[in-house]
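Good morning C.,

I know you're traveling, so I'll keep this short. The sequence:
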Amino acid sequence: MHCDDKATVSLEGVKAGPHTLPVVLAQNDHVEVEHNASSVEIQYAPTSPKPPATRAAPTGAPSIKILSPKPGETVSGSFDVKIGVKNFDLICAEMGKPDVPGHGHWHLSFETMKGPMMGMMTMAAMSCDQTLHASTAGLKPGSSHKLIALLADNVIAPLIPAVADSVEAKV
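The tokens, ready to paste straight into the viewer:
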């Protein structure tokens, strides 16, 4: 999921040969705009292919904690959501690749993580970094909103059972 006109895709663990890279626009609620979908065929011929990750999974129960904003804090415009993660490795190069237990990324949702598409209708962004740039665009000044940080595996699915943290923030 990207919100820019270009994206970097990791080829770590990808076998040499032909591949199709699809691109599908989506509305803010993640409903895909299929009629505008496009794809490009590539021939991946690396001089030295990057092997799949061999990092061992962390031991212990994974956890995530929102460090910023603090509960009840007022945010405006663009703001950072900072998290702390334990017993789970955030690895960008594995996003969208086969699952590796204890590895993945996290989702930022507003209000709830329930609903169709595993709650993706309320997902604002996903990240494999501990800081994510969010925005109050479209939120009413003076309103309060629940920010939810949710751990997800490499194939973009939330961990089961869910591993999440939340805070209420004001706009």
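Safe travels,
E.
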